[in-house]
Amino acid sequence: MKVKTGTPAYAAQAATLLILALLSLSCVGCAGVATTRESVNFGAPAETATPTAELAGSTVSNITRMAPPTGTPAAGGMATVDSGPQAEAAASRPAATATWPAGSDEVPCGVLLPILPADQALTDHLTPGGPALELVPDAALPALERLIAAPETVGLAAFEIGRESDGAYLNPDAPMPLASVVKIINLIAYAEAVAAGGLDPAEWIPLSELERSFLRRTDLGAHARALDGLEERRLIAMDPPATPLEEIPWMMIRHSSNAAADYIHLRLGQTAIEQTAVELGLDSQTAPCPWIGQFLMMANRQSSTNNRGTIQSYLDEPEEYGREAMRLAESYASDQDFRQAESSPGWRVPVTTQALFSDNLNAQASARDYAGLMARILRNELSSDYTNIVVRRALEWPMLFPQNQELFTAIGLKDGSLPGVLTTAYYAQRAEDGAQLVVVLFFRQLSRNTYRQWRQDLPHDEFARWLLSDPAAIPTLRETLRAD
Question: Which of 24, 46, 295, 352 has the most other CB atoms within 10 Å of its CB?
């Protein structure tokens, strides 16, 4: 990956402090996994009214989600301004007037990466039984049972860094739908742009700019929760409402706001997003399209169809899909009349159609590729110290909470959820023995009932937690997968 140089003036003011904080992350703690759960609104029961496409990263609800106390260090050792004179002064600053996408030429999705993944042989049979069934916690058992019963629908890479050959793997090289895990690419692209001086994290962004890619009924309230979080921390200036650019990645990762992800995506441009994936060595990665483009490809007022036949036509002509997805994203962002028409009364697509789309046209990559990426992030091996700081600050949001420090000295995560798809990517350093671990777990083709139940009970996340926290878990799972 190319090494970026040139830290902007805003970043330079805090660089020494932040680098020192980051260098201590692998030794002194900030994060862990707590057990507090959060209720989730699943929407209306009727299939045609259930807005389940992209569920805002709320699947990992065993991570503590209460507001941190004032003065608590943020992820990566960075201080947040939750209240007090500093926050009041920040809120009084004039709002920015920047607009986006700047100079867009509607570069299609797929300019550097393929739209569809390459075919990959899948493990389709495992022998029931094995030691893991005896040791896995009850809360995680449904995930393990699914792994054994339908192994062709699971991608897994779990290992201790430095002992990758002793890890547990299932279909590790098969591309799988990523859901919001793909937002890690946006995050790194943003960090690289800031490190290179192309973006100023102190720029104030009108919240109206984020609304230009927000579509009602597509995120179950993720964007609203992200805005609430900004307001609670007094990070919204008024007249007009605006927030610092550096808070938008936090909205995208902590709350999984699709509007925040699309702001970064369209601000940097399709080529920059895809180039980031290429430079990161994600060989299995397919082209990430803006979320708003994906939703509108499933249904929009310019097209009278939102059925399985339409999706099949995209699979038959992936290049046309890439062009049309970007055209719709750009039109929604730049054409107020089009945006208003699509926003009222809100987006509605049958869940079965959403599931078919998500399983085939959502961005895909392999568990091994993302496990390698998470390991690089934990080991501070991105292109520069500043890039590592920005990326880890966002991913390690659980490090805000003291009760998350009991099991781990560092933990970062991004999860994702689309109908039939649940994904989780973790890195962690265990407090008990200092081991640095990565767990990437991709489930696809979950039935509607299983998907809804898992979003409530979180067995896939409990399974990942077990693999991270129990020193015997990964070797035990490895033996179970070898039992065949």
Answer: 295
Measured in whole angstroms, the distance separating CA 180 from the mean position of its chain's CA atoms is 4
In this structure, which amino acid lies at residue 480? Answer: T
Do the Cβ atoms of 266 and 302 come closer than 8 Å?
no
Quick one: how many helices (H) and strands (E) in the chain? 20, 9
Q: Provide CB contacts within 8 A for 64, sequence distance 6+.
A: 34, 36, 398, 401, 403, 404
* 461 in Cβ contact with 415 (< 8 Å): yes
Helix (H) / strand (E) element for 170: namely: strand 168-170
* Cα(61)–Cα(460) distance, integer angstroms: 11
> Model pTM?
0.82
Residue 232: its pLDDT value, please? 93
d(CA 424, CA 179) in angstroms, rounded, equals 9
* φ, ψ for residue 428, nearest 5 deg: -160, 155
Query: CA-CA distance, 55 to 422, in Å (whole number)?
Result: 10
Cis peptide before 69 (omega within 30 of 0): no
DSSP 424: E
Give whole-number Cα distances, 468 to 60, 178, 276, 397, in Å.
14, 20, 28, 17
Task: Report the C-alpha gap between 111 and 101 in whole angstroms.
Answer: 17
Question: Across all residues in the chain, what is the average pLDDT?
Answer: 81
Helices (H), ranges, 280-403: 291-298, 308-316, 318-334, 336-343, 351-361, 367-378, 385-395
Q: Where are the alpha helices (DSSP H) in 136-246?
A: 141-149, 183-195, 207-211, 222-232
Strand partners, 438: 159, 427
Give residues with Cβ within 8 angstroms of 334, minimum separation 6: 101, 104, 212
CA distances (Å), origin 274, targets 92, 107, 283, 303, 368: 37, 11, 11, 28, 19
Cα separation, 450 vs 123, in Å, equals 21
Whether the ω angle into residue 240 lies within 30 degrees of 0, i.e. cis, is: yes
Whether residue 47 is predicted with pLDDT greater than 50 in this model: the reply is no
DSSP 319-342: HHHHHHHHHHHHHHHH-HHHHHHH
Put residue 35 in one of left, alpha, beta given phi > 0 → left and psi -120 to 50 → alpha. alpha
pLDDT digits (tens, 9 = 90+) for 426-440: 999 999 999 999 999
Flag whether pLDDT at 32 surpasses 60. no
CA distance 380 to 23: 9
Q: Is the pLDDT confidence value at 196 over 50?
A: yes
